[in-house]
Structures are given as C-alpha cells and as structure tokens.
Amino acid sequence: MISFFKKNKNHPDFWKDYERKFQHKLPELIQDVRFVVLDTETTGFDLKKDRILCIGAVNLEHNNIEISRTLELYIDQETFNPDTVKIHGIIKNEDLNTLTEREALVTFLNYIENAVLVAHHAQFDIAMINHALKRLGLPKLKNKVLDTMVLYRATRINSNLIDQNKHYSLDEVAENLNISVKDRHTAAGDAMITAIAFLKIVAKLNKKDKGKLKHLLQVN
C-alpha cells in the first residue's frame, strides 16, 4: 500500500480514487461483471491533432442495460473540423452544456470505475481517451477492454460465411443482429447500439465458453 501511494503521489485525487478501484478482482462470471459500453465522437482520426467532442456510455450489469445510468458528455470544441460535422452532427458553438476536457475525463473516470469497457473498434476510442489523459499528465486507462467487432467475428468464425480477417462496421453488425440504427452517429446512440449487440454476441458465445469473463478476454 505504501508503494501505491508513493508511486501516485503526484497524481490528482480523482486519479488516485480511480486507481483504487482496481485493488479488487473482477468477478469470474460474465453475469456478475459490470460493463461500460462506450463510444466517442471526434473531430477526426488523428490521435495527436484531433479531439473528442462527445463521450457516450451505457452501464450494463447482470445482462441488463441500465437506461437511467446512461452517460453523455459534450466537450468544449477547441479544435473544429467541418468535414466531420456531417458524421456526428455536432456544430461549433452549438447550444450544448459542455465541459472542459479535464472535467469530462474526471466525470468519465468516476463513472467507469474498474468496469470492463466495451466498444466497437475499441482501439480507436480507447486511444483517443488515453491521449486526452496524457495531455493532463496522467497514465493510460487501467480497465480491461472488449471489442464487439472482434467478438462478433468470433461468433461466425466457423460458419464459412466470412473472411476471418474481415472488419465489420457497426452498421453491418447491427443489420446482421436485427438492431435498429435510428440513433446512429451520436455517441450515446452508438453506445446503446453497441450494448445491444454486445448482449446478443455474448449470448452466442456463452454456448461455448460457459459464461466466463476470461474466455471473452481471450477471444478479444
């Protein structure tokens, strides 16, 4: 415990509180694990130059999506790329309740705690968040991460219907799993679509892995 505080003595209290959550082991069974399904809307795909505009997140526990605990954070636009507005629809100086990047990250960390994070093409979303943390002089996220694209592909790996290296878009996954995409391309909307897809994917994988978290992490 002494080494923990010594190592983190220069970090702000909100980061120390976040790291303390990881002193407890995650449950073994999927049904007992808390998942946070997330999506980010950004000004572009350059990890150094572009910025997060919005973070949407959905809480998932005991195989249920908790609508009342949905998170949606809009961040002040210091960087603006008009070319991406047609994708996310967030206009500069739009009348939104926005937070500074630091305020948004503090709220986000308080929300996720030590949950297992889930996203579609998760590498990008997590990398954007980690770069934002780096700008604050903080380490990377400590959470385990699952990618619904990889998990979905695993459900079809023996069907001879796909190229095993195929990268499925969220639209393709939603269509194949009969999920409505009416709220597509908003962070909260995409997080909700991903959460529904995740539950359906896990139900398929559970037939093989007996519902253990470690098997999901191995697939990923």
TrEMBL record:
<feature type="domain" description="Exonuclease">
    <location>
        <begin position="34"/>
        <end position="207"/>
    </location>
</feature>
<dbReference type="InterPro" id="IPR006054">
    <property type="entry name" value="DnaQ"/>
</dbReference>
<keyword id="KW-0269">Exonuclease</keyword>
<keyword id="KW-0540">Nuclease</keyword>
<dbReference type="InterPro" id="IPR036397">
    <property type="entry name" value="RNaseH_sf"/>
</dbReference>
<dbReference type="InterPro" id="IPR012337">
    <property type="entry name" value="RNaseH-like_sf"/>
</dbReference>
<keyword id="KW-0378">Hydrolase</keyword>
<dbReference type="InterPro" id="IPR013520">
    <property type="entry name" value="Ribonucl_H"/>
</dbReference>
<dbReference type="Pfam" id="PF00929">
    <property type="entry name" value="RNase_T"/>
</dbReference>
<protein>
    <submittedName>
        <fullName>3'-5' exonuclease</fullName>
    </submittedName>
</protein>
<dbReference type="GO" id="GO:0004527">
    <property type="term" value="F:exonuclease activity"/>
</dbReference>
